[in-house]
Amino acid sequence: MAVSEMAILGLLFAGIGGTAGAFIRFITVEVFKKQTTFPAGVLISNAVGTFVLALVTFYISKEAGSLEGEIFRHMELFVFFFNTGVLGSLTTFSALSYDNLIYLEQKKFLAAAANIFLNITAGTVAVFAGFLAAFYIL
């Protein structure tokens, strides 16, 4: 089975974007790790990344109907780079789960519950806010 040029480019763009997103998340987590024992860096990464994902995705979906040919191809590559790569790497369920495992091992059940609640709530609010921001800005 031959792999298409678009699939290869998509993989390359997602990988480059993923590197950037991991770098941003690492810095965010490290900055907040020094200020609090709560994993605020993961919470902020997830909330901001989710907001931006909703904003960008809504914009792209709105514009996609008017894009054709080569311009649409470039938009697809942008989605691979930014949505799949940068934002997929920035927002991470695995870090949230790992932080909760540590809390549970330390018998900090309230902290684990708060972490789950805050991340899910922040993510839901962020995706809604991103959608509204894109809707009213665009």
Automatic annotation (TrEMBL):
It is found in: Cell membrane. It is a multi-pass membrane protein. The chain crosses the membrane at residues 6-28, 40-60, 80-98, 110-137. It catalyses: fluoride(in) = fluoride(out). InterPro entries: FluC. GO terms for biological process: cellular detoxification of fluoride. Na(+) is not transported, but it plays an essential structural role and its presence is essential for fluoride channel function. Pfam families: CRCB. Na(+) binds at G88, T91. Its main location: membrane. GO terms for cellular component: plasma membrane. GO terms for molecular function: fluoride channel activity; metal ion binding. Keywords: Cell membrane, Ion channel, Ion transport, Membrane, Metal-binding, Sodium, Transmembrane, Transmembrane helix, Transport. Fluoride-specific ion channel. Important for reducing fluoride concentration in the cell, thus reducing its toxicity. Belongs to the fluoride channel Fluc/FEX (TC 1.A.43) family. This is Fluoride-specific ion channel FluC. It comes from Methanimicrococcus blatticola. The lineage of its organism: Archaea, Methanobacteriati, Methanobacteriota, Stenosarchaea group, Methanomicrobia.
